[in-house]
């Protein structure tokens, strides 16, 4: 939790809940299996992924009495996003082990740099403080659109990050 006390320039105090729900749940699942934080989980199954999704729902249930907004956030934002990510991995033919791989699944938690955001006046990706354009990365894809790339093709053709040979 990031606390922001009232100051001369900050007229109201506040906080940002910096909980990293997915990361903490993934790590807890690995610990239950006797794995370390950065250990790979090559034997992972879809049941392991389901266990993580179930744990996110359990967390939402546990928080319901104390923090309804956190519960709503977990149920309405976090869990559906994680479920969609898991489904995308499965549809692409990636093994469940990548869901648990620190080299593939990355949870940045909060916005990595709160200063770097879209400028609402110009709708251009700039750093507000300097006006400098944000870094941009583009991957050229054959035929302009790819709906599905299997693991082997992704490795061979695009050297996708996190995919080991």
General description of the model:
α1 packs across α2 and α2 (46-63) packs antiparallel against α3. Helix content is 38%, strand content 8%. Strands 1-2 form a two-stranded antiparallel sheet. The protein has a two-stranded antiparallel sheet with strand order 3-4. It has helices at residues 21-32, 46-63, 68-91, 151-158, and strands at 2-4, 14-16, 116-119, 124-127. With 165 residues, it is mostly helical. β3 (116-119) and β4 (124-127) form a beta hairpin.
Question: How would you summarize this macromolecular structure in one to three sentences?
Answer:
The protein is 38% helix and 8% strand.
The first-to-last residue Cα distance is 39 Å
**Spatial sequence of strands, sheet with the most strands:** 1-2
Largest sheet: 2 strands, antiparallel
Number of strands: 4
Write a concise keyword list for the protein shown above.
165 residues, mainly alpha, two-stranded antiparallel sheet, 4 helices, 4 strands, 38% helix
């Amino acid at each position: 939790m990031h606390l922001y006390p009232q100051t001369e320039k900050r007229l109201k105090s506040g906080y940002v809940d910096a909980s990293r729900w997915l990361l903490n749940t993934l790590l807890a699942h690995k610990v239950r299996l006797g794995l370390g934080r950065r250990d790979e989980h090559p034997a992972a199954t879809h049941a392991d992924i389901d266990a993580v999704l179930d744990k996110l729902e359990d967390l939402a249930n546990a928080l319901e009495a104390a923090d309804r907004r956190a519960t709503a956030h977990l149920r309405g934002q976090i869990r559906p996003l994680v479920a969609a990510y898991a489904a995308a991995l499965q549809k692409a033919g990636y093994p469940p082990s990548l869901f648990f791989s620190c080299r593939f699944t990355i949870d940045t938690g909060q916005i990595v740099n709160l200063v770097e955001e879209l400028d609402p006046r110009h709708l251009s990706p700039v750093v507000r403080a300097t006006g400098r354009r944000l870094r941009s990365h583009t991957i050229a894809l054959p035929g302009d659109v790819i709906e599905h790339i299997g693991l082997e093709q992704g490795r061979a053709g695009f050297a996708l990050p996190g995919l080991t040979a």
